[in-house]
Write a structure and sequence with these properties.
The protein has helices spanning about 55-65, 80-90, 105-115, 135-145, 160-170, 190-200, 215, 230-240, 260-265, 270, 275-290, and strands at about 25-30, 70, 95-100, 120-125, 150-155, 175, 205-210, 245. The chain is α/β, with parallel strands linked by helices. The protein has a single domain, classed as TIM Barrel (Alpha-Beta Barrel). It is globular, with a radius of gyration of 18 Å. The mean pLDDT is about 95. The structure holds (1E,3Z)-4-hydroxybuta-1,3-diene-1,2,4-tricarboxylic acid. (1E,3Z)-4-hydroxybuta-1,3-diene-1,2,4-tricarboxylic acid binds near residues 178 and 254.
């Protein structure tokens, strides 16, 4: 099965970033796609990507000057986490994983995932990627993962945020938001919508990835260093320096406007975290606390 006709392939030659991350830096949001002959894509998937193998991912990690990865199960692999687990086993202590499971998952299956390095599950509320599920479906999963000390990753768009707020507030484990819960950046970082998100984050169970400027920008391919997104990322880092994570989002699924150079994404980090102490927290101390305690 070839990739979708309009699929954009990840940058084949990312530059060595001029910004050097601190020793032990973690790329806390990235994926593995396929290879499909070994790890077929899920029948219910909403897109068919190009291959982004574990070897490709680990080569990128080294090229960017990073040390570790948190690999997040993407929707194209559905609830079959084999490609993720295979990547985790290869990486050993250099990677941790976030799986996608359904509410019939058994304690034995979770325990096997735990020993491979999985430390949480992802709830994806983005309708173009997965079909919605009722609240009790998620609650049954939380009941099963909580005893392992796992957390949940939530992928949600700004428009669905209010609807899910009662559920999110009720979750008894740590909740990490992907891509700042996808704000509409055309409204600006001081708009009431983003204020609501920043206020929610005051609860210490919430964390946020400051990631995906390439996805959130409204400047398309003509992005000029994502100047419209950086203030959102910086506001979160400044307000909650100990509960933010950074990731490449490689291989950048569903990008339509342009494909970022991952080296350039790394060079944005000093604009988001403007002191060495904030960079150390964002890239090393925070992900180590959550994934390698
Ligand atoms: C991301 C973003 C996207 C895709 C997925 O699971 C996925 O398929 O997360 C997207 O299309 O916005 O975080 O990789």
């Amino acid at each position: 099965m070839p990739m979708d006709a309009d699929w954009m392939v990840w940058h084949q030659n990312p530059r060595k970033p001029r910004y050097q991350p601190p020793a032990g830096a973690v790329d806390a949001h990235c994926h593995i796609f396929g290879p499909e002959d070994q790890f077929p894509y899920a029948p219910e998937r909403k897109y068919t990507p190009c291959t982004g193998s574990k070897e490709d991912l680990f080569a990128l990690r080294d090229q960017l000057g990073f040390s570790r990865n948190v690999i997040v199960q993407a929707s194209c692999h559905g609830r079959n986490n084999d490609a993720l687990i295979d990547g985790l086993r290869t990486a050993g202590d250099l990677a941790r994983g976030i799986a996608v499971v359904d509410d019939s998952i058994t304690d034995e299956e979770l325990s096997l995932m735990n020993s491979a390095g999985v430390r949480g599950v992802r709830f994806n509320f983005v309708r173009r990627l997965v079909d919605p599920k009722p609240r009790d479906y998620y609650e049954r999963i939380i009941d099963k993962i909580a005893p392992l000390g796992w957390h949940i990753i939530v992928y949600i768009e700004a428009d669905d945020f209010t609807e899910q707020l009662p559920f999110l507030n009720s979750v008894p484990v740590t909740v990490v938001f992907d891509h700042m819960a996808r704000p509409d950046v055309s409204k600006g970082p001081d708009h009431a919508d983003f204020n609501r998100f920043v206020d929610l984050m005051a609860d210490e169970k919430f964390w946020s990835k400051v990631s995906c400027p390439e996805r959130l920008t409204r400047q398309g391919g003509n992005h000029q260093n994502y100047a419209d997104v950086i203030p959102f990322m910086k506001r979160l880092v400044d307000t909650y320096p100990d509960r933010v994570l950074w990731g490449t989002d490689w291989p950048h699924p569903n990008m339509k406007s342009h494909m970022p150079d991952d080296g350039q994404l790394v060079e944005l980090i000093p604009l988001i975290a403007d002191t060495e102490a904030k960079q150390q927290a964002l890239l090393v101390d925070n992900p180590m606390r959550l994934y390698w305690p």
